[in-house]
């Protein structure tokens, strides 16, 4: 039996409930802890995390469910648990890495993983060149800080793209400009990776007239059969990020699969409903296998 903490701001969320149920069903003790209500003794030579006025016990493993809006504080809490010797399903460094869209793209590119043509800018002197460099309109313009499809705009013409980029420049925003993969038809593929294997995959189709396929934006999900190249791309992307559990979002382009994003806290509801697979149980099983190997957390809070 292991003592497991799920770091989640809402114990009623589907993913949190399923992970708790799966862990209890496999005989483990589970606590659900609101990350933002944790506080830490940084100066002590014996690292600890306190919650509601009490020190938290030593956990064998933690499952971070860190929302994008609380990445900075959430990863600090994960790092503290790592320093205490707890095994983290996804390490603090890997979570931080995945939340930085630019850094993610650079790491994936360095590993030779398929990506859409992408430009990064803050205050480009030549907006026309930025647009033409990714193939010209239509282009997708993304705020670096956006999540769940928010801050993502499709510009149909070069003129529209220039206007949108100028608007973002006006608020001093960092943006990515990417080629639009028209042949994907408003659909992407979410590959759920656990321990270096794709354990489930679904195709997410955007609502009519919507190029973003996020389920939060009315998209629908269905079971999909992956090609061997798509499977290998998802596994390689997870490895490049250093994530044990993640959702890798792919587009089917004319030049093979391209990675749009690697999500370090992927939701379980859509993938379990679309595939009828018990992904939560697979995550707990992964923890059991990994925890049996000593010193399996690499960073121990470093970095």
**Largest sheet features:** 5 strands, antiparallel
CATH domain class of the largest domain: Alpha Beta
Structural class: alpha+beta
Question: Might you state the CATH topology name of the largest domain?
Answer: D-amino Acid Aminotransferase, Chain A, domain 1
The domain tally reads: 3
Named CATH architecture of the largest domain: 2-Layer Sandwich
Quick one: how many beta strands?
16
- Output the number of helix runs: 9
Could you say which overall geometry the principal axes of the C-alpha atoms support? globular
Percent helix among the residues? 25-40%
How would you spell out the order of helices and strands?
EHEEEEEHEHHEHEEHEEEEHEEHH
The whole-number mean of residue pLDDT values reads: 89
Describe the structure.
The chain is of the alpha+beta class and 303 residues long. The protein has three domains: 3-96, Rossmann fold (3-Layer(aba) Sandwich), CATH 3.40.50.20; 118-180, Dna Ligase, domain 1; 183-285, D-amino Acid Aminotransferase, Chain A, domain 1. The protein has helices at residues 14-25, 71-83, 92-99, 101-110, 127-133, 158-170, 228-241, 269-275, 279-291; strands at residues 3-7, 29-33, 38-41, 48-51, 54-55, 61-64, 87-88, 118-121, 139-143, 152-155, 175-179, 187-194, 197-205, 220-223, 245-253, 256-263. The protein starts with a strand and ends in a 12-residue tail after the last helix.
């Amino acid at each position: 039996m292991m003592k497991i903490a799920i770091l989640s701001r809402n114990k009623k969320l589907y993913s949190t409930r399923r992970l708790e149920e799966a862990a209890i069903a496999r005989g483990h003790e589970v606590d659900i802890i609101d990350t933002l209500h944790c506080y830490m003794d940084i100066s002590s030579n014996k690292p600890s995390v306190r919650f509601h006025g009490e020190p938290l016990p030593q956990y064998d493993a933690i499952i971070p469910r860190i929302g994008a809006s609380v990445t900075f504080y959430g990863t600090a809490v994960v790092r503290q648990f790592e320093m205490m010797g707890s095994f983290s399903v996804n390490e603090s460094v890997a979570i931080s890495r995945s939340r930085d869209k630019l850094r993610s793209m650079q790491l994936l590119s360095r590993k030779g993983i398929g990506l859409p043509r992408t430009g990064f800018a803050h205050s480009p002197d030549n907006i026309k060149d930025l647009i033409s460099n990714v193939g010209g309109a239509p282009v997708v313009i993304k705020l670096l800080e956006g999540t769940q499809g928010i801050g993502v705009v499709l510009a149909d013409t070069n003129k529209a793209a220039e206007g949108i980029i100028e608007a973002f420049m006006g608020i001093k925003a960092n943006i990515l400009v990417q080629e639009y993969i028209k042949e994907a038809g408003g659909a992407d593929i979410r590959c759920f990776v656990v321990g270096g294997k794709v354990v489930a995959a679904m195709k997410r189709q955007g609502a009519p007239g919507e190029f973003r396929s996020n389920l939060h934006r009315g998209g629908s999900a269905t079971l999909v059969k992956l090609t061997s190249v798509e499977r290998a791309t998802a596994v390689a992307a997870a490895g490049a990020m250093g994530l044990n559990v993640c959702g890798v979002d792919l587009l089917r382009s004319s030049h093979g699969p391209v990675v749009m994003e690697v999500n370090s806290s992927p939701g379980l509801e859509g993938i379990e409903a679309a595939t009828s697979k018990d992904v939560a149980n697979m995550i707990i099983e992964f923890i059991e296998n990994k925890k049996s190997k000593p010193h399996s957390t690499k960073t121990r809070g470093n970095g």
